[in-house]
């Protein structure tokens, strides 16, 4: 198979895997949210930052090192396998001993046992990390999907079954653990590789010298991605964290799924024309405009329909999550613009600017959190909107040095779309108010259809280039 066919096949199976796995996880989370409640999700949310940090420590960038090593042999794979396993045991031991401190920090006694059980996933995943890296290295994404989907189905069925049987928070823990265990078993059963009794200090040094830099970057990024959960879990009621966790999860899934698809396609495209600054600015401008044309109405429409949406999907016990979700939608719609500006730095190999940007943005997040915290949980969530906007200015400032597309030009290009999407959201919200005594399904169908029609006709009347670009894509597809 040629490299082009491998790439296209890889993209297809990666997208399929993403949609299937996220779809299954979403369905399971909805069912468990109706069976359980904010408290159970809040408890798991409290330890999410520790689980994420632990996973970063265990992997330590070693999988990425294997994938990038051209002439890796069994000595490389076996060394990384035993190193991963050793790190997982060390990290698990650390969390096992500090579990009482974590429980005391959040003032939740049950967390001690949850941490000690949940963190077993470090060891489980370490057993199959090399097998997964090998499949990714060989671009066998179809086989990756075949291993992950059965494990996810097994975990989802087990989690939902435990939820119906009254296991409470352990339903969520069980779902993730069984998913990981099932996936690891599938990777072992379908892999032709198994570790021999080989270990090389030279290989260890080589892979760890590359991996630890990724690990440090990952630890910083992971901490700040979960810092809101850490603060809310410490200083607010566990139910408040449960509401935030569900609101953030719903928002994050929609935004990142769309952005990841566009980013994966745009990155190699921009790389090919990186020496043509005028052309790259034109292509980049089209990508920015089109992605925001799609994501802005989705986010503002979701915010407008949040109340009937949450009532129908999750039930009235989750209504306090609605305003949190609506605020997060405001910051989430700028996510694709952030991603594309970062892509420009990657295209031109400016990792120095990439690191500088990360440090600047983390400083901004820290300051905004300290200010937002003074105004309670809503102040914290609104601070994420503020940091998204300021970070947008920072990202566009540095990327504009690479291409002829300034911050003011980017903001100008998305401003009209923002107004149109805002008007659409207003129409949808107004219809839900008029129909508030009717069923949630009727509100969602009528308001959603009216919003889509309004957005289409408004863009058609204004002869929006993004609309006709989308229509051309559909025609070519057919």
From TrEMBL:
It comes from Cyclobacterium marinum (strain ATCC 25205 / DSM 745 / LMG 13164 / NCIMB 1802) (Flectobacillus marinus). Its main location: membrane. It is a multi-pass membrane protein. Coiled coil: none annotated. Keywords: Cell membrane, Membrane, Transmembrane, Transmembrane helix. Signal peptide: none annotated. Belongs to the polysaccharide synthase family. This is Polysaccharide biosynthesis protein. InterPro entries: Poly_Biosynth_Transport (IPR050833). It is found in: Cell membrane. The chain crosses the membrane at residues 12-35, 41-58, 79-103, 115-135, 147-164, 170-189, 282-306, 318-342, 363-394, 414-434, 441-462. One of its GO terms (cellular component) is plasma membrane. The keyword Transmembrane applies.
């Amino acid at each position: 198979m040629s490299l082009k066919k491998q790439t296209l096949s890889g993209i297809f199976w990666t997208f399929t895997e993403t949609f299937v796995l996220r779809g299954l996880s979403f369905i399971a989370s909805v069912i468990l949210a109706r069976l359980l409640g904010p408290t159970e999700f809040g408890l798991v949310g409290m330890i999410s930052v520790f689980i994420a940090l632990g996973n970063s420590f265990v992997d330590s960038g070693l999988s990425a090192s294997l994938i990038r090593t051209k002439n890796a042999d069994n000595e490389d794979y076996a060394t990384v396998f035993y190193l991963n396993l050793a790190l997982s045991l060390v990290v698990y031991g650390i969390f096992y001993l500090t579990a009482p401190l974590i429980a005391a920090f959040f003032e939740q006694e049950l967390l001690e046992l949850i941490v000690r059980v949940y963190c077993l996933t470090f060891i489980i995943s370490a057993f199959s990390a090399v097998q997964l890296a090998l499949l990714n290295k060989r671009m066998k994404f179809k086989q990756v999907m075949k291993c992950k989907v059965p494990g996810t189905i097994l975990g989802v069925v087990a989690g939902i079954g435990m939820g119906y049987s009254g296991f409470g928070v352990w339903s969520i823990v069980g779902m993730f653990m069984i998913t990981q265990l099932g996936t690891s078993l599938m990777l072992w059963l379908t892999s032709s590789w198994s570790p021999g009794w080989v270990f090389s200090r030279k290989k260890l040094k080589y892979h760890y010298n590359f991996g630890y830099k990724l690990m440090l970057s990952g630890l910083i990024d992971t901490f700040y991605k979960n810092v809101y959960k850490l603060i809310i879990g410490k200083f607010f009621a566990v139910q408040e964290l449960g509401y935030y966790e569900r609101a953030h999860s719903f928002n994050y899934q929609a935004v990142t799924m769309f952005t990841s698809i566009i980013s994966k396609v745009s990155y190699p495209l921009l790389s090919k024309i990186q020496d043509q600054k005028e052309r790259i600015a034109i292509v980049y401008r089209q990508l920015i405009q089109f992605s925001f044309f799609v994501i802005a109405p989705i986010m503002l429409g979701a915010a407008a329909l949040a109340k009937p949406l949450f009532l129908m999907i999750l039930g009235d016990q989750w209504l306090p999550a609605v305003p949190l979700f609506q605020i997060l939608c405001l910051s989430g719609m700028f996510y694709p613009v952030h991603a594309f500006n970062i892509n420009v730095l990657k295209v031109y190999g400016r990792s120095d600017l990439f690191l500088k940007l990360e440090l600047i943005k983390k400083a901004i997040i820290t300051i905004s959190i300290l200010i937002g915290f003074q105004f309670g949980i809503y102040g914290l969530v609104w601070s994420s909107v503020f940091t998204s906007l300021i970070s947008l200015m920072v990202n566009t400032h540095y990327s504009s040095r690479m291409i002829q597309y300034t911050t003011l030009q980017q903001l100008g290009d998305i401003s009209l779309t923002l107004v149109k999407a805002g008007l659409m959201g207003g129409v949808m919200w107004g219809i839900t108010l008029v129909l508030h005594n009717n069923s949630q399904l009727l509100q969602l169908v009528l308001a959603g259809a009216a919003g889509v029609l309004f957005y289409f006709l408004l863009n058609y009347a204004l002869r929006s280039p993004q609309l006709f670009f989308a229509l051309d894509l559909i025609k070519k597809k057919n």
